[in-house]
Design brief:
Length: 461
Protein backbone atom coordinates (compact mmCIF):
# COMPACT_ATOMS: atom_id res chain seq x y z
CA UNK A 1 0.00 0.00 0.00
CA UNK A 2 1.33 3.43 -0.95
CA UNK A 3 1.23 5.85 1.96
CA UNK A 4 0.13 9.37 1.18
CA UNK A 5 2.65 12.04 2.00
CA UNK A 6 1.91 13.58 5.36
CA UNK A 7 2.28 17.25 6.09
CA UNK A 8 4.67 16.14 8.78
CA UNK A 9 6.97 14.50 6.22
CA UNK A 10 10.21 16.43 5.69
CA UNK A 11 11.43 17.38 2.21
CA UNK A 12 15.17 16.82 2.35
CA UNK A 13 15.67 19.09 -0.68
CA UNK A 14 14.58 21.97 1.53
CA UNK A 15 16.43 21.02 4.69
CA UNK A 16 19.66 19.33 3.58
CA UNK A 17 22.42 21.23 1.82
CA UNK A 18 23.55 18.34 -0.35
CA UNK A 19 20.20 16.64 -0.90
CA UNK A 20 19.02 19.45 -3.16
CA UNK A 21 22.10 19.38 -5.43
CA UNK A 22 21.27 22.69 -7.05
CA UNK A 23 24.53 22.44 -8.94
CA UNK A 24 23.03 19.52 -10.92
CA UNK A 25 19.90 21.43 -11.89
CA UNK A 26 19.94 25.07 -12.92
CA UNK A 27 23.45 26.15 -12.00
CA UNK A 28 25.36 27.74 -14.88
CA UNK A 29 28.80 29.13 -14.22
CA UNK A 30 28.80 31.51 -17.19
CA UNK A 31 25.45 33.32 -16.96
CA UNK A 32 23.18 34.45 -14.13
CA UNK A 33 20.70 31.66 -13.47
CA UNK A 34 16.95 32.14 -13.63
CA UNK A 35 16.37 30.66 -10.19
CA UNK A 36 18.41 31.11 -7.08
CA UNK A 37 19.04 28.68 -4.24
CA UNK A 38 18.89 28.67 -0.43
CA UNK A 39 21.56 30.77 1.28
CA UNK A 40 23.16 27.80 3.03
CA UNK A 41 23.47 25.92 -0.29
CA UNK A 42 25.08 28.85 -2.09
CA UNK A 43 27.45 29.38 0.81
CA UNK A 44 28.41 25.70 0.96
CA UNK A 45 29.03 25.46 -2.80
CA UNK A 46 31.40 28.40 -2.62
CA UNK A 47 33.12 27.12 0.51
CA UNK A 48 33.65 23.72 -1.09
CA UNK A 49 35.42 25.28 -4.07
CA UNK A 50 37.51 27.48 -1.81
CA UNK A 51 38.97 24.31 -0.34
CA UNK A 52 40.94 24.03 -3.58
CA UNK A 53 42.95 27.13 -2.67
CA UNK A 54 46.11 27.33 -0.62
CA UNK A 55 45.99 27.78 3.14
CA UNK A 56 46.66 31.42 4.09
CA UNK A 57 48.82 30.35 7.04
CA UNK A 58 51.14 28.49 4.63
CA UNK A 59 51.31 31.37 2.14
CA UNK A 60 54.90 32.57 2.38
CA UNK A 61 54.59 34.46 -0.91
CA UNK A 62 52.41 37.36 0.14
CA UNK A 63 53.23 40.29 2.39
CA UNK A 64 49.51 40.85 3.00
CA UNK A 65 48.18 40.06 6.48
CA UNK A 66 46.20 36.85 6.80
CA UNK A 67 45.32 36.94 10.51
CA UNK A 68 43.79 39.37 12.98
CA UNK A 69 42.43 38.98 16.49
CA UNK A 70 38.79 37.86 16.90
CA UNK A 71 37.88 41.26 18.35
CA UNK A 72 39.17 42.93 15.18
CA UNK A 73 37.18 40.48 13.07
CA UNK A 74 34.01 41.46 14.96
CA UNK A 75 34.66 45.18 14.43
CA UNK A 76 35.26 44.56 10.73
CA UNK A 77 31.90 42.80 10.38
CA UNK A 78 30.14 45.64 12.20
CA UNK A 79 31.61 48.35 9.95
CA UNK A 80 31.63 46.67 6.54
CA UNK A 81 28.37 48.47 5.68
CA UNK A 82 29.65 51.95 6.54
CA UNK A 83 30.88 53.92 3.54
CA UNK A 84 34.22 55.46 4.45
CA UNK A 85 33.65 58.51 2.26
CA UNK A 86 30.36 59.46 3.98
CA UNK A 87 31.96 61.72 6.58
CA UNK A 88 28.75 63.59 7.31
CA UNK A 89 26.77 60.42 8.02
CA UNK A 90 29.60 58.62 9.83
CA UNK A 91 31.63 61.37 11.53
CA UNK A 92 33.20 59.07 14.09
CA UNK A 93 34.80 57.02 11.29
CA UNK A 94 36.47 60.19 10.09
CA UNK A 95 37.65 60.93 13.65
CA UNK A 96 39.28 57.49 13.82
CA UNK A 97 40.88 58.15 10.42
CA UNK A 98 42.34 61.46 11.57
CA UNK A 99 43.68 59.88 14.74
CA UNK A 100 45.50 57.28 12.63
CA UNK A 101 47.05 60.05 10.54
CA UNK A 102 48.25 61.88 13.66
CA UNK A 103 49.73 58.68 15.10
CA UNK A 104 51.55 57.88 11.88
CA UNK A 105 52.82 61.46 11.54
CA UNK A 106 54.37 61.22 15.00
CA UNK A 107 55.99 57.89 14.17
CA UNK A 108 57.35 59.33 10.91
CA UNK A 109 58.72 62.44 12.66
CA UNK A 110 56.57 64.91 10.76
CA UNK A 111 57.24 68.55 11.69
CA UNK A 112 55.56 69.52 14.97
CA UNK A 113 53.90 72.51 13.32
CA UNK A 114 51.02 70.12 12.48
CA UNK A 115 50.81 71.23 8.85
CA UNK A 116 51.31 67.69 7.60
CA UNK A 117 48.43 66.01 5.76
CA UNK A 118 47.55 62.42 5.02
CA UNK A 119 44.89 60.02 3.90
CA UNK A 120 43.95 56.37 4.00
CA UNK A 121 43.97 54.60 0.64
CA UNK A 122 42.99 51.19 -0.70
CA UNK A 123 46.67 50.25 -0.52
CA UNK A 124 50.12 51.50 -1.38
CA UNK A 125 49.38 51.39 -5.11
CA UNK A 126 46.77 54.13 -4.76
CA UNK A 127 49.02 55.98 -2.30
CA UNK A 128 51.91 56.01 -4.79
CA UNK A 129 49.62 57.22 -7.59
CA UNK A 130 48.39 60.09 -5.39
CA UNK A 131 51.88 60.94 -4.19
CA UNK A 132 53.23 60.98 -7.73
CA UNK A 133 50.36 63.16 -8.93
CA UNK A 134 50.97 65.66 -6.15
CA UNK A 135 54.63 65.97 -7.11
CA UNK A 136 53.79 66.21 -10.81
CA UNK A 137 51.23 68.99 -10.26
CA UNK A 138 53.54 70.87 -7.89
CA UNK A 139 56.42 70.67 -10.38
CA UNK A 140 54.16 71.80 -13.23
CA UNK A 141 52.86 74.77 -11.24
CA UNK A 142 56.40 75.92 -10.50
CA UNK A 143 57.40 75.57 -14.16
CA UNK A 144 54.35 77.55 -15.28
CA UNK A 145 55.09 80.30 -12.78
CA UNK A 146 58.65 80.51 -14.10
CA UNK A 147 57.44 80.48 -17.73
CA UNK A 148 59.39 77.29 -18.41
CA UNK A 149 58.48 74.21 -20.42
CA UNK A 150 56.40 71.72 -18.44
CA UNK A 151 55.63 69.17 -21.16
CA UNK A 152 58.20 66.50 -20.30
CA UNK A 153 58.16 65.50 -16.62
CA UNK A 154 60.25 62.54 -15.53
CA UNK A 155 60.55 60.38 -12.44
CA UNK A 156 63.71 58.56 -11.33
CA UNK A 157 63.35 55.15 -9.71
CA UNK A 158 65.00 51.75 -9.53
CA UNK A 159 64.14 48.55 -11.32
CA UNK A 160 63.40 47.16 -7.84
CA UNK A 161 60.12 49.08 -7.55
CA UNK A 162 56.70 47.44 -7.40
CA UNK A 163 54.68 47.45 -10.64
CA UNK A 164 52.46 50.32 -9.45
CA UNK A 165 55.35 52.74 -10.04
CA UNK A 166 55.51 51.73 -13.69
CA UNK A 167 51.73 52.11 -13.86
CA UNK A 168 51.93 55.63 -12.46
CA UNK A 169 54.46 56.69 -15.09
CA UNK A 170 52.42 55.21 -17.94
CA UNK A 171 48.95 56.22 -16.78
CA UNK A 172 49.90 59.81 -15.95
CA UNK A 173 52.32 60.47 -18.80
CA UNK A 174 55.57 60.79 -16.88
CA UNK A 175 58.86 59.58 -18.37
CA UNK A 176 60.22 56.76 -16.18
CA UNK A 177 63.98 56.86 -15.76
CA UNK A 178 64.66 53.42 -14.38
CA UNK A 179 67.93 52.40 -12.79
CA UNK A 180 68.59 48.73 -13.63
CA UNK A 181 69.67 46.23 -11.00
CA UNK A 182 72.98 44.39 -11.05
CA UNK A 183 73.67 40.69 -10.36
CA UNK A 184 75.25 41.58 -7.01
CA UNK A 185 73.32 44.78 -6.14
CA UNK A 186 69.55 45.02 -5.91
CA UNK A 187 69.07 48.59 -4.65
CA UNK A 188 69.70 52.09 -6.00
CA UNK A 189 72.40 54.44 -4.78
CA UNK A 190 73.00 58.18 -4.90
CA UNK A 191 75.61 57.52 -7.57
CA UNK A 192 72.94 55.82 -9.70
CA UNK A 193 70.49 58.68 -9.27
CA UNK A 194 72.77 61.64 -9.96
CA UNK A 195 73.16 61.33 -13.77
CA UNK A 196 69.41 60.84 -14.31
CA UNK A 197 67.93 63.83 -12.49
CA UNK A 198 67.40 67.22 -14.09
CA UNK A 199 65.11 70.24 -13.80
CA UNK A 200 62.19 68.18 -15.15
CA UNK A 201 62.40 65.50 -12.46
CA UNK A 202 59.19 65.59 -10.44
CA UNK A 203 60.62 63.34 -7.71
CA UNK A 204 62.94 60.47 -6.93
CA UNK A 205 61.22 57.28 -5.79
CA UNK A 206 63.05 55.16 -3.24
CA UNK A 207 62.14 51.84 -1.65
CA UNK A 208 62.31 51.03 2.04
CA UNK A 209 62.23 47.26 1.85
CA UNK A 210 61.99 45.85 -1.64
CA UNK A 211 59.61 43.00 -2.42
CA UNK A 212 62.46 41.18 -4.14
CA UNK A 213 65.10 40.93 -1.41
CA UNK A 214 63.77 42.94 1.55
CA UNK A 215 66.56 45.51 1.21
CA UNK A 216 66.38 49.30 1.29
CA UNK A 217 67.72 51.94 -1.10
CA UNK A 218 70.37 54.49 -0.10
CA UNK A 219 67.67 56.93 1.04
CA UNK A 220 69.83 59.03 3.34
CA UNK A 221 72.60 59.30 0.75
CA UNK A 222 70.13 60.22 -2.00
CA UNK A 223 68.70 62.92 0.28
CA UNK A 224 72.20 64.38 0.65
CA UNK A 225 72.60 64.34 -3.12
CA UNK A 226 69.32 66.21 -3.64
CA UNK A 227 70.28 68.81 -1.02
CA UNK A 228 73.57 69.41 -2.83
CA UNK A 229 71.78 69.67 -6.18
CA UNK A 230 69.28 72.13 -4.72
CA UNK A 231 72.13 74.29 -3.44
CA UNK A 232 74.26 74.10 -6.57
CA UNK A 233 71.63 74.10 -9.34
CA UNK A 234 68.45 75.29 -7.72
CA UNK A 235 66.51 72.08 -8.49
CA UNK A 236 64.28 71.38 -5.51
CA UNK A 237 63.58 67.70 -6.24
CA UNK A 238 61.41 65.92 -3.65
CA UNK A 239 62.06 62.43 -2.38
CA UNK A 240 59.24 59.93 -2.03
CA UNK A 241 59.77 56.90 0.20
CA UNK A 242 57.82 53.77 -0.63
CA UNK A 243 57.54 52.20 2.80
CA UNK A 244 54.85 49.72 1.78
CA UNK A 245 56.77 46.69 2.97
CA UNK A 246 59.35 48.16 5.32
CA UNK A 247 57.79 51.23 6.91
CA UNK A 248 55.99 49.48 9.74
CA UNK A 249 59.12 47.38 10.35
CA UNK A 250 61.65 50.19 10.53
CA UNK A 251 59.40 52.36 12.73
CA UNK A 252 59.49 49.74 15.47
CA UNK A 253 63.04 48.37 15.47
CA UNK A 254 66.37 50.01 16.16
CA UNK A 255 67.90 49.56 12.73
CA UNK A 256 69.73 52.90 12.54
CA UNK A 257 68.22 53.69 9.15
CA UNK A 258 67.39 57.33 8.38
CA UNK A 259 64.54 57.54 5.90
CA UNK A 260 61.51 59.43 7.21
CA UNK A 261 60.49 63.11 7.48
CA UNK A 262 63.64 63.87 9.46
CA UNK A 263 65.33 63.99 6.06
CA UNK A 264 64.78 67.39 4.44
CA UNK A 265 63.92 66.26 0.91
CA UNK A 266 61.57 63.47 1.98
CA UNK A 267 58.23 65.11 1.18
CA UNK A 268 55.92 62.08 1.01
CA UNK A 269 55.76 58.55 2.40
CA UNK A 270 53.40 55.68 1.75
CA UNK A 271 52.78 52.71 4.05
CA UNK A 272 50.76 49.52 3.72
CA UNK A 273 48.49 48.94 6.67
CA UNK A 274 47.57 45.59 5.19
CA UNK A 275 51.17 44.41 5.24
CA UNK A 276 53.14 44.93 8.41
CA UNK A 277 50.51 47.32 9.73
CA UNK A 278 48.94 43.91 10.51
CA UNK A 279 45.53 44.60 8.91
CA UNK A 280 43.65 42.60 6.27
CA UNK A 281 43.54 44.08 2.75
CA UNK A 282 42.98 46.68 1.79
CA UNK A 283 44.27 49.75 3.54
CA UNK A 284 47.27 51.92 2.80
CA UNK A 285 48.44 55.30 4.04
CA UNK A 286 49.90 58.37 2.36
CA UNK A 287 51.44 61.24 4.32
CA UNK A 288 52.90 64.53 3.11
CA UNK A 289 55.37 66.47 5.21
CA UNK A 290 53.58 69.74 4.44
CA UNK A 291 50.15 70.54 3.04
CA UNK A 292 51.80 72.83 0.49
CA UNK A 293 53.04 69.71 -1.31
CA UNK A 294 49.43 68.89 -2.29
CA UNK A 295 48.23 71.41 -4.92
CA UNK A 296 44.73 72.76 -4.32
CA UNK A 297 43.56 71.74 -7.79
CA UNK A 298 43.97 68.06 -6.82
CA UNK A 299 41.50 68.35 -3.95
CA UNK A 300 37.79 68.11 -4.76
CA UNK A 301 34.94 69.35 -2.61
CA UNK A 302 31.62 67.52 -2.73
CA UNK A 303 28.41 68.22 -0.84
CA UNK A 304 25.94 65.68 -2.17
CA UNK A 305 26.49 63.30 0.76
CA UNK A 306 25.29 65.86 3.28
CA UNK A 307 27.96 68.36 4.22
CA UNK A 308 30.82 69.99 2.35
CA UNK A 309 33.68 67.51 2.20
CA UNK A 310 37.16 67.75 0.64
CA UNK A 311 38.42 64.54 -0.96
CA UNK A 312 41.80 63.57 -2.34
CA UNK A 313 41.63 59.94 -3.45
CA UNK A 314 41.46 57.95 -6.67
CA UNK A 315 38.75 55.73 -5.21
CA UNK A 316 35.54 57.01 -3.69
CA UNK A 317 33.03 54.66 -2.04
CA UNK A 318 34.53 51.84 0.03
CA UNK A 319 34.04 50.19 3.38
CA UNK A 320 35.28 51.78 6.59
CA UNK A 321 36.15 48.37 8.02
CA UNK A 322 39.90 48.31 7.38
CA UNK A 323 40.46 51.85 8.65
CA UNK A 324 38.68 50.76 11.84
CA UNK A 325 40.85 47.64 11.92
CA UNK A 326 44.00 49.78 11.67
CA UNK A 327 42.80 52.05 14.46
CA UNK A 328 42.05 48.95 16.56
CA UNK A 329 45.61 47.71 16.11
CA UNK A 330 47.06 51.09 17.03
CA UNK A 331 45.18 51.41 20.33
CA UNK A 332 45.33 47.67 21.05
CA UNK A 333 49.05 47.14 20.49
CA UNK A 334 50.64 50.52 21.08
CA UNK A 335 54.31 50.99 20.31
CA UNK A 336 55.44 48.20 22.62
CA UNK A 337 53.05 45.68 21.04
CA UNK A 338 54.24 46.49 17.55
CA UNK A 339 57.85 46.28 18.70
CA UNK A 340 57.34 42.81 20.14
CA UNK A 341 55.56 41.49 17.05
CA UNK A 342 58.12 43.00 14.66
CA UNK A 343 61.04 41.66 16.67
CA UNK A 344 59.40 38.23 16.77
CA UNK A 345 59.00 38.22 12.98
CA UNK A 346 62.59 39.35 12.47
CA UNK A 347 63.81 36.59 14.81
CA UNK A 348 61.91 33.91 12.87
CA UNK A 349 63.22 35.30 9.55
CA UNK A 350 66.79 35.29 10.87
CA UNK A 351 66.34 31.71 12.06
CA UNK A 352 65.21 30.67 8.58
CA UNK A 353 68.05 32.56 6.90
CA UNK A 354 70.68 30.99 9.16
CA UNK A 355 69.18 27.53 8.66
CA UNK A 356 69.19 27.88 4.88
CA UNK A 357 72.81 29.01 4.86
CA UNK A 358 73.76 26.04 7.04
CA UNK A 359 71.93 23.77 4.61
CA UNK A 360 74.74 24.29 2.11
CA UNK A 361 72.69 24.58 -1.08
CA UNK A 362 71.69 28.25 -0.76
CA UNK A 363 73.23 31.69 -0.68
CA UNK A 364 71.50 34.75 0.76
CA UNK A 365 70.69 37.64 -1.58
CA UNK A 366 71.38 41.21 -0.53
CA UNK A 367 73.32 42.80 2.31
CA UNK A 368 70.89 45.54 3.39
CA UNK A 369 67.98 43.37 4.50
CA UNK A 370 65.69 45.11 6.98
CA UNK A 371 62.45 43.10 6.72
CA UNK A 372 61.36 39.65 7.90
CA UNK A 373 61.99 38.44 4.37
CA UNK A 374 64.49 35.82 3.25
CA UNK A 375 65.54 35.70 -0.40
CA UNK A 376 67.97 33.00 -1.47
CA UNK A 377 69.38 31.61 -4.66
CA UNK A 378 70.97 28.24 -5.29
CA UNK A 379 74.71 27.85 -5.54
CA UNK A 380 76.09 27.63 -9.05
CA UNK A 381 76.75 23.89 -8.98
CA UNK A 382 73.19 22.94 -8.04
CA UNK A 383 71.58 19.96 -9.79
CA UNK A 384 68.10 21.56 -9.74
CA UNK A 385 66.53 25.02 -9.80
CA UNK A 386 64.35 27.17 -7.56
CA UNK A 387 61.27 26.65 -9.73
CA UNK A 388 61.42 22.93 -9.05
CA UNK A 389 61.73 23.58 -5.33
CA UNK A 390 58.73 25.92 -5.43
CA UNK A 391 56.59 23.33 -7.23
CA UNK A 392 57.59 20.56 -4.82
CA UNK A 393 56.86 22.71 -1.79
CA UNK A 394 53.42 23.47 -3.20
CA UNK A 395 52.71 19.74 -3.16
CA UNK A 396 53.23 19.88 0.60
CA UNK A 397 50.97 22.92 0.97
CA UNK A 398 53.64 25.63 1.19
CA UNK A 399 53.35 28.59 -1.17
CA UNK A 400 56.85 29.94 -1.85
CA UNK A 401 57.43 32.03 -4.97
CA UNK A 402 60.30 31.42 -7.34
CA UNK A 403 61.15 34.24 -9.73
CA UNK A 404 63.91 36.11 -11.50
CA UNK A 405 65.17 39.52 -10.41
CA UNK A 406 64.60 42.72 -12.43
CA UNK A 407 66.82 43.81 -15.37
CA UNK A 408 69.83 43.64 -15.47
CA UNK A 409 69.84 40.94 -12.80
CA UNK A 410 67.27 38.71 -14.50
CA UNK A 411 69.72 35.81 -14.59
CA UNK A 412 69.46 35.56 -10.81
CA UNK A 413 66.75 33.06 -9.82
CA UNK A 414 65.49 33.26 -6.26
CA UNK A 415 63.14 31.81 -3.68
CA UNK A 416 61.53 34.28 -1.27
CA UNK A 417 60.08 33.48 2.15
CA UNK A 418 57.93 36.19 3.75
CA UNK A 419 57.45 35.87 7.51
CA UNK A 420 54.17 37.28 8.83
CA UNK A 421 52.76 37.74 12.32
CA UNK A 422 51.14 34.30 12.50
CA UNK A 423 54.17 32.38 11.19
CA UNK A 424 55.71 30.96 14.36
CA UNK A 425 59.14 29.45 14.88
CA UNK A 426 57.40 26.08 15.26
CA UNK A 427 55.93 26.48 11.78
CA UNK A 428 59.35 27.58 10.53
CA UNK A 429 60.83 24.32 11.82
CA UNK A 430 58.11 22.39 9.98
CA UNK A 431 58.75 24.38 6.81
CA UNK A 432 62.49 23.75 6.93
CA UNK A 433 61.89 20.03 7.47
CA UNK A 434 59.67 19.90 4.39
CA UNK A 435 62.21 21.91 2.42
CA UNK A 436 64.90 19.39 3.35
CA UNK A 437 62.63 16.58 2.14
CA UNK A 438 62.07 18.40 -1.15
CA UNK A 439 65.79 18.90 -1.73
CA UNK A 440 66.49 15.27 -0.89
CA UNK A 441 63.86 14.20 -3.44
CA UNK A 442 65.36 16.43 -6.12
CA UNK A 443 68.87 15.20 -5.41
CA UNK A 444 67.82 11.58 -5.55
CA UNK A 445 66.45 11.77 -9.08
CA UNK A 446 64.27 13.64 -11.55
CA UNK A 447 65.37 15.61 -14.55
CA UNK A 448 66.08 19.28 -14.17
CA UNK A 449 63.34 21.15 -15.98
CA UNK A 450 63.83 24.55 -17.50
CA UNK A 451 62.49 27.47 -15.53
CA UNK A 452 59.20 28.81 -16.89
CA UNK A 453 59.22 32.33 -18.23
CA UNK A 454 58.26 34.65 -15.42
CA UNK A 455 57.78 38.38 -15.25
CA UNK A 456 59.79 39.39 -12.20
CA UNK A 457 57.22 41.95 -11.07
CA UNK A 458 54.02 40.14 -11.90
CA UNK A 459 54.78 37.22 -9.58
CA UNK A 460 55.45 39.41 -6.54
CA UNK A 461 52.34 39.86 -4.41
Amino acid sequence: MIRKKSKKDVDLSDTSTYASRHDLEDLNLEVLNEKGMPARVASQLIEDELNLEGAPALNLASFVSTWMEPEADELILKTLNKNFIDHDEYPQIQNFHERCIHMLAELLHAPKANNYVGTATIGSSEAIMLGGLAHKFSWRAKRKAAAKDYSKPNIVMGGNVQICWDKFARYFDVEPRIIPMQPDRYIITAKDVEPLIDESTICVGTILGTTFTGEYDEIEEINKLLLRVKKDKGWDIPLHVDGASGGFISMFIKDGIKWDFKLEQVKSINLSGHKYGLVYPGVGWLLFKDESVVPEDLVFNVNYLGGNMPTYTLNFSRSSAMVIAQYYNFIRLGKSGYRKIVNNMMSVANFIAESLLEHGDFKLLGTRRMEPVVSVSLKDNSQFNVFQISRKLREKGWIVPAYTLPPNAERVETLRIVVKENFSKTMAVDFLAHLSEVIAELKSGGQVGSAPHRDAKSCIH
